[in-house]
Amino acid sequence: MSNWTLDKSDIAAFLSDLGKEYRVFAPVRRNDLVSFEPLDSGEEADLGSGNSDVPPKQVFFPRSETLFTYEGGEVTAVPLEEESRLIFGIRPCDAAGLVVLDQVFNSDDYQDPYYTRRRENTVVIGLGCDRPVSTCFCTAVGGGPFAVEGLDLLLTDLGDRYLVEAVTERGQALAEGNSFLREAVEEDERLKAEIVARAEQAVSGPSTEGLKAKLDVMYDDPFWAEVHQKCLGCATCTYLCPTCHCFDIVDESTRGGGRRVRNWDSCQFTLFTLHASGHNPRPSGQERMRQRVMHKFRYFVDNFEMVACVGCGRCVSKCPVNLDIREVIEAIEAS
Amino acid sequence: MSELEELLRAKARQLLAEGQVQQVIGYERGTVPLRARPCFVRDPEQVERLVWNPHCENNLATYLHQADGKVAIVAKGCDARSIVNEIVERQVPRGDVVIIGVPCQGVVDRRKVEELLDGRDAFDGQITQGHLVIHGTDFEESVELQAVWNDSCATCRHRNPPVYDILIGELVEAEDGEDVFVAVRELEAKTADERWAYFSSEFSRCIRCYACRQACPSCYCPECFVDQTQPSWFAKSDELSDVMAFHLVRAYHVAGRCLDCGACARACPMGIDLRTLSRKLQKDVRELFDYEPGMDVEAAPALGSYRQDDSDKFIK
Question: Would you kindly state where each structural domain of chain A is located, as residue ranges?
Answer without folding.
Answer: 3-61+73-202, 211-334
